[in-house]
Amino acid sequence: MSINSKIINNVISEVSTKEEAREVVDWFSSSIEGQHHLSDMIDKDAYLMESDADTGKSFTSLQSDTLFRKIDKNIRANRLKKFSIRVAAVFLPLLLILGLGYFMNSRTTLFQGVNYAELYIPKGENARIFFQDGTEVFLNADTRIRYPDRFGIRKREVFLDGEAYFNVSTNNKRPFIVNSQNTAVKVTGTSFNVNAYSESETIEVVLDEGRTAFLVGENSYSMSPGQQIEYNKTTGVTTLYNLSKSSNVSLWKNNILYFNDTPLAEVLKVLERRYDVKFHIQSTNALDYSYTLITKNNNIDSVLFELQKITPVRFDHSGENDDNVFVTLQD
């Protein structure tokens, strides 16, 4: 079931019949299509309100009391008239408009300051969360994300330190922005992976679907599906790569380890976060080796056993402290 846009406009303009007003309210409250239409109306009206120089200012208590006194006075005056249909054509749209305002305020930060929450995923763990707009986020180990209680009208903005995979709910009017260490990824509806640990030398963004822009300083770099951007935080150099299979980069969210000609030093960083262990390099020559591997093993010893098949590097995890792994070269 769908409602003719003319009927909706009549309700909002206070020229509808009682039956039309009830029909529109029922449609908004009981159907997915109606809720989507209502959401679009809210976004449109919110932009108009923000562009008005008088908006952005909250009502004072005195203004609110005066407004409600006027409404109450008008209602009492209308009781003296013939109002059976007239009130339905005016009162229901008024309730609808007030409801829109309340609903809009509950979904956005138009009328109040932004309050941020923070979530930290420790080493050895991962998590999956959903934001109020429907955006899905996978969080890797040792990752911290800061996000508002409610997204703003013009943008949806979060702050990341670590690695996360985003399935962003599409909204062309309210871009989704991931900030990390003086860089930002800006999208409207996209699937992408961000690797931005503060202790790492680089920030890497891999795009699976949609389009996105990587922002650093005054520069903006567009990305297409299957591409990876690597930003060196020390040199300021940004490099764009084409990947043969971009989805491999985010296999971690399915508890799959993926290395592609990855230096041992980077392999050890990944394993330390995933399994909450500490590697001790006994032979620096071991760092000359790189690894290519895909494995579903969730046990650290099984992973180390597979790595030992590839190079002469050996891992000793048999000590009294299970948190320590010693790395040596085979004689």
Key features?
331 residues; alpha+beta; Jelly Rolls; Phage tail protein beta-alpha-beta fold; 13-stranded mixed sheet; 3-stranded mixed sheet; 31% strand
Summarize the structure.
The chain is α+β, with helices and mostly antiparallel strands and 331 residues long. It is 31% helix and 31% strand. The chain has helices spanning 5-12, 18-30, 32-51, 61-78, 84-107, 264-275, 300-308; strands spanning 116-121, 127-130, 136-139, 143-148, 156-167, 176-180, 183-187, 191-196, 202-209, 212-216, 219-223, 227-232, 238-242, 257-263, 278-281, 290-295, 313-316, 324-329.
Helix content, binned percent: 25-40%
Q: What's the architecture of the largest domain, going by CATH?
A: Sandwich
Helix segment count?
A: 7
Number of strands: 18
Over all CA atoms, what is the radius of gyration? 28 Å
What is the CATH fold-level name of the largest domain?
Jelly Rolls
Task: Tell me what portion of residues adopts beta-strand conformation.
Answer: 25-35%
**Secondary-structure content class:** alpha+beta
Number of domains: 3
Q: Termini separation (Å)?
A: 75 Å
Describe the sheet with the most strands: 13 strands, mixed
Order of helices and strands: HHHHHEEEEEEEEEEEEEEHEEHEE
CATH class of the largest domain: Mainly Beta
Low-confidence runs of at least 5 consecutive residues: 49-61, 80-91, 104-111
Shape: elongated
How confident is the prediction overall: mean pLDDT?
81
